[in-house]
């Protein structure tokens, strides 16, 4: 078969490169992305390899680029991905690149420092502007005239504090007022005593610290200060981190140098910023005008600085991919060996056989770029190692291949389940999710992502959930399309039916009987039924058959689930034949495939056949012994067949068996199925014992036979020589072989029963999905549909929005995820266990695209 159904044929090659041409050749191979290099120096420390200094230089350049990239993202500068990747520069250009990045980094750091200083200065001027505005309001307000004497100082300041707090709370003014400062600054007593001179400090503080700041002032100064504050409405930018912070302006009045010192220490402890504020109104106005002028100048300078920073970052955004390529090249060159002359590099690599000519052309281009006259040499090697597994994919098959690889990477040249999964996965999902309306929503979402895939892929978002949805857009689309098909089969659209061809049932009761009789049923043996089934899918009458709708659908979907499950498992066993024949494992065909297939057919395919016989022979319109009342239970019949029981005595006029000779056939099928078990259990070990005895008699040391080895060719170039799907028992003990075969036989026999029952999840989830949709319709949307008039229109709009949210959130997303996981389990366990081992390792080529996307060093086989 082609590479679609089986992994690519791989070969191990030895590559000889001249030292001068090695860099250019590896660069060309990185652009090609078809070579996986092996580490030929596994015991050499990474710091002792030949190109470690170049890797360190690349690390330093990458550090600088990470800093530049962080600043680019900080400024929101778009780094448009045009899809074009610049070629890796020559080694002699590294010095120029280092100088360029050093210049960009130093220039950007200098610009950042200048911008931070300017922003800090701008913040200080902005805070000073708000202080001058707010304090002018404070000074224009007045407080009661107070007198000061030694004996009453404490009581006077306490009353002033209480008055100030009360004034801030309700903004009430007293009739007797005097200016705070004066002639603007002094306070004169209206009676004999000492004149009172108040000092003050003004500043700004973070708004969340203001309450604790006020309490501390009260406690530390014993209430002998007067605090006024006002919020700055607009947020201010913190120059250190760029965050928006909210601050408040405050002014504190006090008397005496001791209180002044205490107030300043408290301000320093709460990281409040103090600013000079003149006492005279004229001085304050003059300072405010100067501050506004300086702010305007700073705005101009900040704009120019930001433009210069933007130009520097735009220039740096073009070089982000180059350094990763250079680093990856030198990292790969460290995997090579040097010959004795120190002039030639030797490498080993896995390559696809079909791409050897393409790789040789790439090596020739690299040699021409480097100007070397010695051509590279690519030799195929003979090896007994298992090559990596390489399945070619495109944007359509990539997601399905990822589902298979999540279970386990296929062994080399093993049958690839991905092509079959493209059909079986969305179909089994649709059996559980069958609804024309929900399937349409899912298909439209997948189709939208497919139509917009170029633009959505260029965004490169870091949202993991969205990346999962986008990566599986083709799976989502196919699941939606198949769900639309099964929805038509079930005749189910948002829990309602489509009467396309007209129902083949007729209600012959009057309206009163239909509305009042809750146990009313339609009898197919009467004129209620036309005698012919609905042309496509279920008859729409079943949607309104409240009494026996679930009974009918349970019987139908349960049998369909078993039939689909048996077909799926038999198909999986049939695929194992392709593995056995490809690896020339004759014993596996005789003692595994044939008895397994016969066992499944004799037992479970016969079970599915009984369902078709029952559907075909028994009907409500037939007379006994094939009437509806005489139809036997398929489950009881199957249990009697397995246990060898005699069926119970049927009703009068009925027969115990569905067809003539059923007892004889069932006994024969049971006997054949039981005979398959010892063949699976003992056939292969006995054949291996016979082959070993024959080899000992012929004195063939180290020889193997087809009975012990599932392959005949052990070379990499032979394709089938790597037994990814074969069984090598040459070095195994006979006891281990018998135990392994016994476990495998027991697992298959018991697993056939459990796996068949596991497919009943198709019925269970389909029934649950239909019932949830019906509940949402009856308990949510029908409320709005029953309303009349203009109020009914408003009510219906609100109810419909609520119903749509629940439909998408629960029935499409949650039920869709549940059905997806159950479908995944049916493929991983019930289907792939019949033929798929998944014990290989993935082909990880040296490819610049993957390295740039992942932002790391290339994956290497055998690297520490």
UniProtKB/TrEMBL annotation:
<feature type="transmembrane region" description="Helical">
    <location>
        <begin position="593"/>
        <end position="613"/>
    </location>
</feature>
<dbReference type="InterPro" id="IPR026028">
    <property type="entry name" value="V-type_ATPase_116kDa_su_euka"/>
</dbReference>
<keyword id="KW-1133">Transmembrane helix</keyword>
<comment type="function">
    <text>Essential component of the vacuolar proton pump (V-ATPase), a multimeric enzyme that catalyzes the translocation of protons across the membranes. Required for assembly and activity of the V-ATPase.</text>
</comment>
<keyword id="KW-0375">Hydrogen ion transport</keyword>
<dbReference type="GO" id="GO:0000220">
    <property type="term" value="C:vacuolar proton-transporting V-type ATPase, V0 domain"/>
</dbReference>
<feature type="transmembrane region" description="Helical">
    <location>
        <begin position="470"/>
        <end position="490"/>
    </location>
</feature>
<keyword id="KW-0472">Membrane</keyword>
<dbReference type="GO" id="GO:0046961">
    <property type="term" value="F:proton-transporting ATPase activity, rotational mechanism"/>
</dbReference>
<feature type="region of interest" description="Disordered">
    <location>
        <begin position="702"/>
        <end position="730"/>
    </location>
</feature>
<keyword id="KW-0175">Coiled coil</keyword>
<dbReference type="GO" id="GO:0051117">
    <property type="term" value="F:ATPase binding"/>
</dbReference>
<dbReference type="Pfam" id="PF01496">
    <property type="entry name" value="V_ATPase_I"/>
</dbReference>
<protein>
    <recommendedName>
        <fullName>V-type proton ATPase subunit a</fullName>
    </recommendedName>
</protein>
<dbReference type="InterPro" id="IPR002490">
    <property type="entry name" value="V-ATPase_116kDa_su"/>
</dbReference>
<feature type="compositionally biased region" description="Gly residues">
    <location>
        <begin position="715"/>
        <end position="726"/>
    </location>
</feature>
<comment type="similarity">
    <text>Belongs to the V-ATPase 116 kDa subunit family.</text>
</comment>
<keyword id="KW-0406">Ion transport</keyword>
<dbReference type="GO" id="GO:0007035">
    <property type="term" value="P:vacuolar acidification"/>
</dbReference>
<feature type="transmembrane region" description="Helical">
    <location>
        <begin position="560"/>
        <end position="581"/>
    </location>
</feature>
<feature type="transmembrane region" description="Helical">
    <location>
        <begin position="422"/>
        <end position="450"/>
    </location>
</feature>
<feature type="transmembrane region" description="Helical">
    <location>
        <begin position="790"/>
        <end position="814"/>
    </location>
</feature>
<feature type="transmembrane region" description="Helical">
    <location>
        <begin position="664"/>
        <end position="683"/>
    </location>
</feature>
<feature type="coiled-coil region">
    <location>
        <begin position="51"/>
        <end position="128"/>
    </location>
</feature>
<keyword id="KW-0813">Transport</keyword>
<dbReference type="GO" id="GO:0005886">
    <property type="term" value="C:plasma membrane"/>
</dbReference>
<keyword id="KW-0812">Transmembrane</keyword>
């Amino acid at each position: 078969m082609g590479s679609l159904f089986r992994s690519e044929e791989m070969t191990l090659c030895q590559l000889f490169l001249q030292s001068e041409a090695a860099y250019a050749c590896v660069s060309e191979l990185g652009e090609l992305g078809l070579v996986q290099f092996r580490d030929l120096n596994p015991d050499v420390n990474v710091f002792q390899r030949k190109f470690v200094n170049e890797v360190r230089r690349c690390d330093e350049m990458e550090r600088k680029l990470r800093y530049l990239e962080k600043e680019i993202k900080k400024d929101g500068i778009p780094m448009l991905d045009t899809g074009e990747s610049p070629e890796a520069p020559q080694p002699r250009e590294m010095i120029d690149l280092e100088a360029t990045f050093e210049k960009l980094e130093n220039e950007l750091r200098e610009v950042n420092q200048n911008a931070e200083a300017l922003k800090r200065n701008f913040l200080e001027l902005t805070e000073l502007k708000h202080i001058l505005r707010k304090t002018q309001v404070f000074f224009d307000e007045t407080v009661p005239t107070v007198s000061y004497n030694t004996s009453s100082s404490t009581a006077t300041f306490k009353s002033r504090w209480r008055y100030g707090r009360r004034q801030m709370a309700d903004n009430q003014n007293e009739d007797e007022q005097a200016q705070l400062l004066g002639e603007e600054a002094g306070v004169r007593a209206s009676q004999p005593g000492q004149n009172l001179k108040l000092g003050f400090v003004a500043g700004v503080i973070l708004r969340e610290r203001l309450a604790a700041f006020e309490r501390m002032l009260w406690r530390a100064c014993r209430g002998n200060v007067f605090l006024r504050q006002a919020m700055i409405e607009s947020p201010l930018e913190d120059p250190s981190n760029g965050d928006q912070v909210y601050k408040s302006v405050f002014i504190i009045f006090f008397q005496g140098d001791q209180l002044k010192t205490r107030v300043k220490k408290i301000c320093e402890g709460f990281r409040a910023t103090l600013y000079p504020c003149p006492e005279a109104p004229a001085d304050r106005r003059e300072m405010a005008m100067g501050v506004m002028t300086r702010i305007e100048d700073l705005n101009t300078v900040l704009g120019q600085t930001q433009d210069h920073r933007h130009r520097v970052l735009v220039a740096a955004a073009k070089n982000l991919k180059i350094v990763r390529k250079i680093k990856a090249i030198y990292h790969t060159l460290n995997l090579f060996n040097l010959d004795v002359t120190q002039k030639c590099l030797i490498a080993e690599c896995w390559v696809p056989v079909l791409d050897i000519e393409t790789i040789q052309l790439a090596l020739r281009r690299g040699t021409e770029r480097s100007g070397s006259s010695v051509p590279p040499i690519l030799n195929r090697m003979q090896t007994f190692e298992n090559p990596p597994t390489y399945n070619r994919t495109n944007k359509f098959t990539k997601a399905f291949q990822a589902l298979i690889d999540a279970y386990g990477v296929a062994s080399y040249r093993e049958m690839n389940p991905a092509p079959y999964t493209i059909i079986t996965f969305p179909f089994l999902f649709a059996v559980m999710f069958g609804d024309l309306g929900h399937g349409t929503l899912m298909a439209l979402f997948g189709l939208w992502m497919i139509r917009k895939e170029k633009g959505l892929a260029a965004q490169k978002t870091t949202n993991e959930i969205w990346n999962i949805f986008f990566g599986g857009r083709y799976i989502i689309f196919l699941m939606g399309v198949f769900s639309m098909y099964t929805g038509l089969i079930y005749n189910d659209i948002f829990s309602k039916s489509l009467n396309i061809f007209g129902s083949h049932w007729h209600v012959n009761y009057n309206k009163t009987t239909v509305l009042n009789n809750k146990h009313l049923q339609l009898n197919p043996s009467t004129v209620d039924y036309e005698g012919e089934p609905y042309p496509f899918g279920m008859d729409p009458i079943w949607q309104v058959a409240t009494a026996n709708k679930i009974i009918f659908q349970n019987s139908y979907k349960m049998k369909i689930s078993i039939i689909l499950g048996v077909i799926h498992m038999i198909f999986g066993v049939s695929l194992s034949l392709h593995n056995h024949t490809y690896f020339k494992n004759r014993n596996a065909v005789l003692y595994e495939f044939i008895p397994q297939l016969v066992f499944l057919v004799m037992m479970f395919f016969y079970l599915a056949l009984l369902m078709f016989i029952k559907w075909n022979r028994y009907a409500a319109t037939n007379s006994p012994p094939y009437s509806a009342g005489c139809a036997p239970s398929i489950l009881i019949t199957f249990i009697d067949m397995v246990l060898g029981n005699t069926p119970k005595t049927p009703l009068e006029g009925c027969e115990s068996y569905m067809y003539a000779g059923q007892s004889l056939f069932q006994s024969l099928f049971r006997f054949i199925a039981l005979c398959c078990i010892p063949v699976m259990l003992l056939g292969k070990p006995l054949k291996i014992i016979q082959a070993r005895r024959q080899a000992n008699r012929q004195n063939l040391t180290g020889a193997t036979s087809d009975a012990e080895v599932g392959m005949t060719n052990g070379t990499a170039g032979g394709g089938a020589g790597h037994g990814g799907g074969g069984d090598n028992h040459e070095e195994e003990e006979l006891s281990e072989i018998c135990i392994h075969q016994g476990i495998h036989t027991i697992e298959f026999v018991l697993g056939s029963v459990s796996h068949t029952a596991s497919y009943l999840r198709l019925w269970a989830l389909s029934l649950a999905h239909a019932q949830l949709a019906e509940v949402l319709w009856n308990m949510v949307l029908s409320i709005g549909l029953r309303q009349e008039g203009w109020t009914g229109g408003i009510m219906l709009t609100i109810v419909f929005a609520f119903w749509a949210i629940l439909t998408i959130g629960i029935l499409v997303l949650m039920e869709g995820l549940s059905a997806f996981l159950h479908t995944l389990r049916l493929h991983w366990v019930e289907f792939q266990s019949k033929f798929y081992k998944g014990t290989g390792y993935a082909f990880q080529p040296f490819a610049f695209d993957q390295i740039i996307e992942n932002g790391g060093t290339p994956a290497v086989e055998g690297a520490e």
